[in-house]
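Practice problem 4.
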């Protein structure tokens, strides 16, 4: 019974925070701490006890709830925190032109039923391809990019990191090394080992291309 009472109290406090001035403060503090607020271009009154309407870039309604957050080109750096979903009265979110903002948005932002505008162009933030999130995104004024699909990420990884090289590329390298291998005994020995490795990669590449 005691555990149930504690859980009820905790969940009640959490729900209240998500739709209150205190919930707004939690969200703003999380944004400040998560995006290097100390080094923003302008951070006037942030984390102070002054009304949110006096915090740089924040607009509130008559009840003190945050309705607009405009920190355009303000040197935000890092990740937009999930706590931003606590800003349940938010109508406009403008964080564009902060080039060091990164990572996908949290899908919980689609719970912001009053949001009509979200500008994220000029950042490295992307919108998740989650179907429900995309459907919600289509209902607001959004500027930004969608996250790459998994298939695109996989293709890029194979071609640019430790994955298999395209067969034709391996063949061209082999041909070049075959020419150079005729020069000196030491070079022939070194290039022979590299050729063996490349031929193994060619076999892996061919197998991958047959699968795809």
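Answer key:
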């Amino acid at each position: 019974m005691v555990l149930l009472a504690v859980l009820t109290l905790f969940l009640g406090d959490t729900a209240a925070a998500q739709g209150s001035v205190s919930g707004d403060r939690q969200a703003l503090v999380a944004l400040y701490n998560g995006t290097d607020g100390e080094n923003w271009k302008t951070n006037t009154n942030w984390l102070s006890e002054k009304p949110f309407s006096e915090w740089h870039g924040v607009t509130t309604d008559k009840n003190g709830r945050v309705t607009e957050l405009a920190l355009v080109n303000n040197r935000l750096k890092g990740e937009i925190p999930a706590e931003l979903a606590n800003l349940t009265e938010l109508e406009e979110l403008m964080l564009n032109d902060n080039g060091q903002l990164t990572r996908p948005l949290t899908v919980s932002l689609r719970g912001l039923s009053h949001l009509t505008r979200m500008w994220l162009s000029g950042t490295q933030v992307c919108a998740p391809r989650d179907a429900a999130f995309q459907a919600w995104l289509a209902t607001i004024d959004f500027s930004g990019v969608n996250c790459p699909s998994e298939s695109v990420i996989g293709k890029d990884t194979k071609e640019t990191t430790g994955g298999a090289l395209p067969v034709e590329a391996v063949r061209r390298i082999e041909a070049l090394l075959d020419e150079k291998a005729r020069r000196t005994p030491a070079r022939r020995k070194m290039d022979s080992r590299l050729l063996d490795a490349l031929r193994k990669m060619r076999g892996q590449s061919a197998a991958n291309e047959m699968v795809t």
